[in-house]
Amino acid sequence: MDFLKADALPWLAESQQQLRDSNRAARLPHSSLLSSTPGLGAEHLANWMAALALCETPERPCGVCASCLLLKADTHPDYHLVKLEEDAQQIKVDQVRELIAMLALKSYRGGYKVGVIEGAEALNMNAANAFLKTLEEPAANTLLVMIARPTHRLPATIASRCLRIALRPPPTDMAVAWLAQHGPAGQNWDAALSLAGGAPLLALELQASGLAALESDMQDALRAIGAGAVDVTLLADQWARSNLPLRIAWLENWITRRVHTYLGEENSDQTAERVRLPAALLKPKIRALFELLDAARDMRRLASTGMNQQLALEALLLGGRSVLVPRGVGTVVIAKSK
What CATH number should be reported for the domain whose range is 3-166? Predict the structure, then answer.
């Protein structure tokens, strides 16, 4: 575990300083909930918080003491990580019980005991109930850190017992400067940052995974949908097997740009000119776009609930076929009155 990675992410500096101040004042929170979208480094901050609690020197975390070295090697006996197991959609109660058992033991090194739960919104009901007792009756010198998305489904009884730390995307100039320093030289980061919701780490990952190819593939798919030239069932199966969360995020951004375009607020990537439709035609178009946007957001939010993603995607694409029309396909032509 490289917990010092957090020091290289400038948008985390304020949260780090607040936690340092709390630690110096012996007020380090017993339990924290990091609310974050992917790509902002919440996992790095959680690791750094673990090091802050477990480090054995005054200047924490030092990175060189015995505890820090054990943590770096992922062998610290007073640290326990809980996350989704491979191919699982929920964090199970047995995983939480292992964490609770570790926290009940005496600290091996005579200091803190730390538990981290990644993707805490995936806790099933039994796991959440088991964990609640630990939050209600915390042992001394324990640190619990949960990471969840802002739209988490954590029970209020759990979330209310945690210090909430909301991570937000940095200003664009900070994000671009960081990406210019840590990414390939000469890149234009606008598209990647837009798709990543302003999250620099995710933008870096998207750029490296071939964002241009995805952009081309999605545009081709929308043209085929708009022209009725593709089997939506086959397309949904293809998307469900290949970067579905990324495709849904791309679709959300695309729909949002179309809404702005139809409202005449800005130019879009799909057309060089502002769209000025009469109100009679504009209103149903905008309504359909917003309904499609809501459906895409619901699908992303419910993706971890065990829903049949292919069937949900088929319904989304079929329901939005009338508005999934890129530039040059199905253009509305309004005849001038004579």
Answer: 3.40.50.300
